[in-house]
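yo

u said u wanted the structure for the complex thing, so here. seqs first:
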Amino acid sequence: MATSSTEIERSGAVPPGALGFTATQAAGLVARTAAVDAVGLEERAASLAKRSIKREAKLWALDLAIRCMDLTTLEGADTAGKVVAVCAKAVRPDPTDPSIPSVGAVCIYPLLVPVAAGQLKGTTVRVASVAGGFPAGLAPLEERLGEIREAVRSGADEVDIVLNRSAFLSGRYRQAFEEIAASREACGDAHLKTILEVGELGSYDQVRRASVLAMAAGSDFIKTSTGKLSTGATLPAALCMMEAARDFHHETGRRVGVKVAGGIRQSKQAIQYLVLLYETLGPDWMGPDLFRIGASTLLNDVLMQIAKERTGRYQGPDYFTVD
Amino acid sequence: MTDQLEQATDQKPRRAAPWEYAPAPEAKDIVTIRPRYGLFIGGRFVEPRSGRYFETVSPSTEQRLAQVAEAGKEDVDAAVKAARQAWEERWRNLPGRERAKYLYRIARALQDRSREFAVLESMDGGKPIKESRDVDLPLAAAHFFYYAGWADKLDYAFPGRVARPLGVAGQVIPWNFPLLMAAWKLAPALACGNTAVLKPAETTPLTALLLAQVIQEVDLPPGVVNIVTGAGETGAALVAHPGVDKVAFTGSTEVGKVIRRVVAGTGKRLTLELGGKAANIVFDDAPLDQAVEGVVNGIYFNQGHVCCAGSRLFVQESVFELLLEKLKERLQTLRVGDPLDKNTDVGAINSREQLEKIEELVGSGIEEGAEIYQPECVLPERGFWFRPTLFTGVSQSHRIAREEIFGPVLSILTFRTPDEALEKANNTPYGLSAGVWTEKGSRILWMTQRLRAGVVWANTFNRFDPSSPFGGYKESGFGREGGLHGLEPYLDFDRANGRRR
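structre next:
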């Protein structure tokens, strides 16, 4: 690996067209996307998942996992009270241990953004809102864009939208591209994360094509899943997206972040994704500016593992707050 | 909000250095190495009549591991006699299902003790523990399981023919996959009702000797498997011994030729699995990221000490630059070092002699004008090491494109059309394996029909399975190991003609 640069200059918001792709070019780009061999991809992901990360390397990874975490609550039953509790946890994951960093962001539904923005003011934790007809993305475009604008206006620093799989899977790449580009514009200064929902794409070829499309349309991040399907993030799908991001960087000079989400509950999984990231995209991507883990229950497992690494003993679950 | 973002960006990571994986060494204490090993003859470890011993060292530390007996002519003779006696008095009379039971026991014992075997293999041979753990050991056990399954079905394996064992097999194996090669040789021989005298390579005898202990523990009848350690002279004595009915050799083409001369006219059956200079062919429509993995696995797996290694890479010119860039980047992430560390990708070169051979050939590549690339990596001070290496600007006439290097050295050539790829790929005295990378199914079939190689992998490389036959064309040898085909070299059909069991 080349030099380390854990602190990346935050790439400014990119207006549509700034990358120089038109919708037609983007559709061509998707059609020319390199093939992905499923057997080889899964083998590579499985072999990286076997890396043995121990002691200080593990502590470093766990610390990073927290800083890269989008602490998420996306339930119909979410209330202001629930969001206040999540925000408190996000800022100080372990009230007894000030050495534990804050998480990267709190991820919530748009209507709860004002609550989170109030709670997180003056902290390093960002407010991320899903928007754009999450999780299906099949509301009328104007409604989706309106939702994005509203979320940003109420204080969202980051917006997680979904790829229009209906358009993408039926080959309407231009439409899918234009919708993301319009969402990018609607975001203004906020960061745009585009969820591909890999569990619905059917093949790694499609994952790679969708990654290219979303990156060319100006997404700041590409994200695996909504967390609303039984299939969330998988190591091979994440690897496929990381390879696409690496090649996109080589071709355009632009660094696009990767967010993994959906079914990541254990520290071990988080570390496996970090290994994938490190050995595919390198040290430049190893920070919250270019990598996120979306999760609701992962945090306490990470805290538990940190305590275990430091003391040599596991603590009971009641020693970590449930929020 | 903007302030908040700025602030968030200002949150300095606590550690500025790249992620250093902490050492993750597999514990050595599971292995007990005896200070001195005798020869395994007639079910017992015996002192060599030669009175001579040699040392086996760990190539990653240059530490002496043990003293191992060097079998002389008399010792080989004793081993062959023990094998003959076991065959005549016991083994050939056992029903197949009884022979199978022993093979199953060996297979299960290998699984039970796989960690012990894997650690020992990595200590004695220098290969990364992740390979000995995930490749060598599972495959070795799988070979015993697979051939155990055939032992009682030989009458059905070759319809219309009655199969009988040959007698005593003399088997000489190499140092690159010490235990796995022992399994490849012993499992079919025993399943078919033969007894065996096995000669492991002098730099890697320890796992074969541990296998001898397993063989004792599973109560295999004494003399069915005998293991004589030593160098070339021991192997020569075994191959030339008149009491041997079948010779199986895996190793260099040079030695293979000598063996064929020795065996000629003796009536001994012979199979040879020799060197290779395999072509790995990448077309412009290939899944490139996976092709890069396949190329890396093809040549850097086991430090390139693989007879079927994809040592010649042929890349279609239109994707050459892109593939090369990806390959160089990937080489930077290879972790070279302590074979026992679970995160090591490339281990130690097996011996000083082999290291010198690699250095000599790499030197010739530079001299002949090819361009060398090696990733930056820190090599341990002690032991035998060689950086993963690739050459561009290689032409067919360069030595590095023609001779087997048997090290982590890749020669990259380009082509424009499928015909050209095929012609160049076949333009070698060897023919053990080949790889084809393309999304186009019809092209895979077109290529595999025309490539003169015993194994052709499509969109993968270095994949092995006991049910799949393996062997060479041309100077890569003859005869097949593995699968149904792997039974034939250990069976006699002619003598059984017209007779029923």
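Chain B touches chain A at residues 1-2, 4-5, 7-24, 130, 134, 285-291, 293-294, 325, 332-333, 342-343, 439, 459-460 (CB under 8 Å). DSSP finds 16 helices and 20 strands in chain B.
cya
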